[in-house]
Amino acid sequence: MKMNLSQSWQQQLNDEFEKPYFKNLMQFVTKEYSQHTCYPNESDVFAAFNHCEFDKVKVVIIGQDPYHGPNQANGLCFSVKDGIKHPPSLVNIFKELESDIGKAYPESGNLEKWAKQGVLLLNATLTVREHEPGSHQKMGWEMFTDTVISKLSENSERLVFLLWGGFAKKKAKLINKKNHTILTSGHPSPLSANRGYWFGNRHFSVCNKILDDLGNKKITW
């Protein structure tokens, strides 16, 4: 599997690529893609990094693993390809955007436009077998993406981390809270949102206020 990571990410992660766990992970993923239908497309596995350079990251959103249905996953957490029906969590993200900042509900669920402004949309596990959620968990991806979060914490300044749901909140231990801001809420999935843990968190406006106070350009959500 070709990573083709940009220079800024390679400088941070080159040592990781040489570790035994990562080589084993790549062997596993290569075999899975050769024997099963897996998502996202091989060319999109590292899309989160390729749409958002390390030194351009301003905001980090953490998901769990990719969508496992046909033509959904595009390598960015919560995002789908243009023209694809919005999954329930993404619907609730867009509903919160509407109520928070008054943005009209978007037609496309492709979040590449966020990534290109400095929002790293990182799934903890970067691949999945079709119709088998969680099928590629605990094979090494989490070790890799935990390293990504730690590198961002150590080697960046004043990032905003949006941790939605219990899984993402566990990543807070990897983040230096003196140097970065962590915003937490329930997950945007219907189960959590309908219990009152998602709607009204106002993370999008709060995040932009933090960026503005830091002198950074706000995100056009």
TrEMBL record:
Cellular component annotations (GO), alphabetically ordered: cytoplasm
Enzyme Commission numbers on file: 3.2.2.27
Domain Uracil-DNA glycosylase-like per the UniProt entry, residue ranges: 50-211
PROSITE patterns referenced in this protein's UniProt entry, alphabetically: U_DNA_GLYCOSYLASE
Compartments, record wording: Cytoplasm
Keywords annotated in UniProt: Cytoplasm, DNA damage, DNA repair, Glycosidase, Hydrolase
Keyword flag Cytoplasm: yes
Active-site residues (renumbered): D65 (proton acceptor)
A Gene Ontology biological process term: base-excision repair, AP site formation via deaminated base removal
InterPro entries, per database record: UDG_fam1, Ura-DNA_Glyclase_AS, Uracil-DNA_glycosylase-like, Uracil-DNA_glycosylase-like_sf
Enzyme class: hydrolase
Swiss-Prot/TrEMBL catalytic activity: Hydrolyzes single-stranded DNA or mismatched double-stranded DNA and polynucleotides, releasing free uracil
Pfam family, one: UDG
Function recorded in the entry: Excises uracil residues from the DNA which can arise as a result of misincorporation of dUMP residues by DNA polymerase or due to deamination of cytosine.
Similarity comment: family membership: Belongs to the uracil-DNA glycosylase (UDG) superfamily. UNG family.
Name of protein: Uracil-DNA glycosylase
Gene behind the chain: ung
